[in-house]
Design brief:
S-adenosyl-L-methionine; DNA binding; restriction system; elongated; 19 strands; methyltransferase; nine-stranded mixed β-sheet
Length: about 675
């Protein structure tokens, strides 16, 4: 069963921690608060783990050898810790945060750094990614080291006081507040544990009897990975099954934020989880020449059984601060289906996960990923997004999409969607996609966490999982489920030219100025477009005279020749005077062409009133019959796009028309409100 968390307790703890952040006001910028507070929380939590381990070891030794003095027992524990390295982490010093606070305040910086330097290498990496030693110097300079140390020296942050689930909520609430203070965009958000749990439930990960790998390309503080393994532990019915979970399930992830990476590594360390968490950008190649670490899990052997992720929404990956050039190096391999627009990298994460699927003949892979609405329909036919959707659907990898309630996340209230994908569909799922409307499956939060005002209960999750499992047989019998063929999301983008009609429904003509330059290329385009006679009326003016010329240009004529002939006829006396005395035909020709070129021209032309339009036609429709039915004008020509477009519009498929309230009901509501307002005003006066 899903663990219940006491959010009042967690909010109180977050508030207490937040007070320490507020002590930094005036000494640190708002965006720097988390660089001071979060590392201290992690250090204290690690210390609690280590102190608990030391106490357990001491109790065990004392039970076996009661004749030993306390000093001897502590010495034996220290040897076990540092020499045998049996602890998940160790510290070679005798310092604790409490002891540091008890010593001379003028030496606290020295003692604190000694303490940090005494930690084992796995903790050193965490401290280094927080860049905490540099932060300590600033804390000392601004007289903030002692207050912060005093606050956390005895804070109950160990696993016995706060489970990993509860600690995750505290981390995320603090990160939410820090991001609000620093003005970060809502794209930086954190996934509520019940949403992760639903994703894991929908992945249907079996209890392992052999190796199972789980991967997240944007793992943040590690919530997706840890919840996946916790789910399997909960399902394990006996010690043997639990042992299989510990032995066979491996966790793998990438994280680009140094702070989140450090928190994730610390969390894995506390759980004694041997996870492969890599620091870097999973969307680009890992190369010594890259501006930042890239995908370190990109070798051919790096394929995963289950993948889940909640990549940041709407994050720009192009421009001078992006990594478009580095991502472009994978455009013919990992991203060969298409490159999405540079202000939303969501599909880069999905393609990265798809590139890490195991072959279907070796069991294949299943994945769950959270998106906002953009990947469903952004991008026209032929765009990067549409081509990626086409690639996914035509390969029959998309299994289902779950529409989630809004206001589930801490930093954004938007609607979100879980995409389920696999390259090894069962027969009953092949060439089909299920859409699930889970928007009403929620309860209100008793107390909101930022923008998180709704939550998924155990029953809500069970309902959505049931919709998914039973929906393949029930189909449209369940109003919350709709099943489509993969081609149902496809459409033709058809460019069409039709002949507009006038008020009498007769083919219309238009007389208008010709505003383009009279170049051969422009005229050729006009003739090709209209493919019919064009009537020209051109007012001309030279240095000595004016003339009006009119002519009809047929589709097979060349404008320059017809125009030149008409000009020569209209200005024959002036041209004759211009060329008199010229000796060669070439000289005369050049003079005439220059004369024509320098004429002032006002051009009006009459043509058929053709209209260019674009029609989006569902796949399977007869295109010509559709155009005749929908346009009801004389069709001149049409052309289909070279490939199908794809879009998924869940809101449309589940839309139900709700008629507006009758006028008398609205009027009654208005008068009821008027009466209520009058009563309130009367109460204020009295």
């Amino acid at each position: 069963m899903q663990k219940i968390v006491n959010k009042d307790k967690l909010n109180n703890l977050a508030n207490e921690i937040w007070k320490s952040a507020e002590r930094l006001r005036g000494k640190f910028k708002a965006y720097e608060y988390q660089s001071v507070i979060l590392p201290m929380i992690v250090i204290r939590r690690l210390e609690c783990v280590l102190l608990r381990w030391r106490q357990d070891q001491a109790d065990e030794i004392a039970g076996k050898r009661p004749e030993l003095r306390e000093e001897e027992i502590l010495d034996m524990v220290k040897k076990l810790e540092c020499r045998a390295k049996k602890a998940p982490l160790f510290n070679t010093t005798d310092w604790t945060l409490e002891k540091i606070c008890e010593e001379d305040p003028s030496l606290r910086k020295t003692h604190f750094k000694e303490y940090l330097n005494g930690f084992s290498e796995n903790v050193q990496e965490i401290i280094d990614h927080f860049h905490y030693r540099d932060v300590i110097d600033r804390m000392v300079k601004n007289s903030r080291l002692s207050p912060i140390l005093n606050q956390y020296a005895n804070e109950a942050l160990g696993p016995e006081a706060l489970s990993n689930l509860e600690m995750g909520y505290v981390y995320e609430e603090l990160l939410r507040r820090f991001s609000e203070q620093s003005g970060e965009e809502a794209g930086e958000h954190f996934t509520p544990r019940e949403v992760i749990r639903l994703m894991v439930e929908l992945l249907e990960i079996p209890l392992p009897e052999k190796h199972i790998s789980v991967y997240d390309p944007a793992c943040g503080t590690g919530g997706m990975l840890t919840v996946a393994k916790e789910y399997l532990y909960e399902r394990a019915g006996n010690e043997s099954e639990q042992s299989n979970v510990r032995q066979f399930v491996t966790l793998h992830g990438h994280e680009l934020s140094p702070g989140n990476y450090a928190i994730c590594k610390a969390d894995m360390l506390i759980k004694e989880e041997d996870a492969a968490i890599c620091f870097g950008n999973s969307l680009i190649p890992d190369s010594p020449n890259s501006p930042e670490p890239g995908d370190q899990l990109a070798k051919p052997g790096h394929k995963f059984d289950y993948m889940l992720s909640n990549p940041p929404f709407g994050v720009t990956w192009g421009g001078k601060d992006g990594y478009a050039d580095e991502a472009g190096k994978l455009s013919t391999t990992r991203y060969r289906a298409g490159m999405p627009r540079t202000n939303d990298g969501a599909f880069l994460f999905l393609q990265t996960m798809l590139a890490k699927m195991k072959p279907a003949d070796k069991g294949g892979s299943r994945m769950a990923i959270i998106f906002n609405g953009s990947p469903l329909s952004n991008g026209d036919c032929g765009s990067g997004e549409s081509e990626i959707r086409r690639w996914i659907l035509e390969n029959d990898w998309l299994d289902a999409i779950v529409m989630l309630p809004d206001q589930l996340f801490y930093n954004t209230g938007i609607f979100t969607y879980i995409w389920l994908l696999t390259n090894n569909k069962p027969e009953s799922h092949k060439d089909r996609v299920m859409l699930i409307d889970g928007r009403s499956c929620f309860e209100k939060e008793p107390k909101s966490f930022g923008n998180k005002r709704n939550r998924l209960t155990i029953q809500n999750m069970a309902d959505i999982k049931s919709f998914y499992q039973k929906g393949w047989e029930q189909g449209d019998d369940n109003p919350k489920v709709k099943i489509f063929k993969t081609k149902d999301f496809a459409y033709h983008k058809v460019s069409v030219v039709f002949w507009q009609t006038d008020d009498n429904d007769e083919p219309a003509y238009v007389t208008e100025p010709f505003s383009k330059a009279l170049t051969p290329a422009n005229m050729k385009k006009e003739q090709e477009f209209y493919d019919s006679d064009l009537e020209f009326s051109i007012a001309l003016a030279s240095m000595k005279g004016i003339a009006d010329i009119d002519f009809t240009l047929t589709p097979d004529q060349t404008f320059a020749k017809v125009f030149e002939k008409a000009v020569k006829e209209a200005f024959k006396l002036e041209i004759k005077g211009l060329t008199t005395g010229m000796k060669t035909a070439g000289e005369k020709t050049r003079a005439v062409k220059k004369f024509i070129r320098e004429l002032k021209k006002e051009v009006v032309y009459t043509h058929r009133h053709y209209v260019t339009d674009t029609e989006y036609i569902p796949y399977g429709e007869n295109i010509e019959a559709f155009l005749k039915r929908e346009i009801e004008k004389p069709l001149i020509r049409w052309a289909d796009s070279p490939q199908l477009g794809y879009e998924i519009l869940p809101n449309r498929y589940f839309y139900k028309y709700v008629p507006p309230k009758p006028a008398d009901a609205l009027l009654k509501e208005f008068w009821d409100l008027e009466e209520e307002a009058a009563g309130l005003l009367k109460g204020l006066v009295e």
